[in-house]
Amino acid sequence: HQEEQFKMAKGDPKKPKGKMSAYAYFVQTCREEHKKKNPEIPVNFSEFSKKCSGRWKTMSAKEKSKFDDLAKQDKARYDSEMKNYAPAKGGKKKDPNAPKRPPSGFFLFCSEQRPKIKATSPSLSIGEVAKKLGEMWNNLTDGAKQPYLNKATKLKEKYKKDVADYKTKGKVDGAKMAPRAAPKKGMDDEDDDDEEEEDEEEEEEEDDDEDDDE
User: Fold this and answer.
1) What is the pTM of this model?
2) Which of 41, 107, 144, 162 could form an SS bridge with 103, CB 3.0 to 4.6 Å?
3) What ranges are recorded for DNA binding (predicted)?
């Protein structure tokens, strides 16, 4: 747990170090002076902060200017590094051309009924509308739900076909980019069987996902 907390606190190690203010540079200088004068005495941070703050308030603009310059330089460094910094994003990048998952029967019902609820009760929040839709769906008879479920089933079948076409297209594109070495004789049939099994497994997983969604 401690390691996890440390990782969370540490954040992205590639992220540029935050920019320092003129006052932060002044405090850093004060601390270095203190270490040189009293190397044996540890710094009492609360007292040290008060002293630094008091000194900073009494300093003239001319005295502060060198710290302002340091802060400006650090800001320029930070801005420059941030331009080249791209936050690490987890997971695979989604293909915008991939077929979209079909809505469930309940989702189709919500899409149809939501505008009606908003029209009659515009003051309801998003959460309240969702709750009301859930209650309405649960109160429907099986017969009333059937048209939505039938439509969802048709959309699901279309989605499966689209996914199969999309995968085929992906394999064709991939083959164009990186031609596969010709397999040995007698291996062709086995390869085809393996690919078919993989496709079937993927479709089964998608079906399971759909059930979870509903």
Assistant:
1) 0.37
2) 107
3) 16-86, 99-167
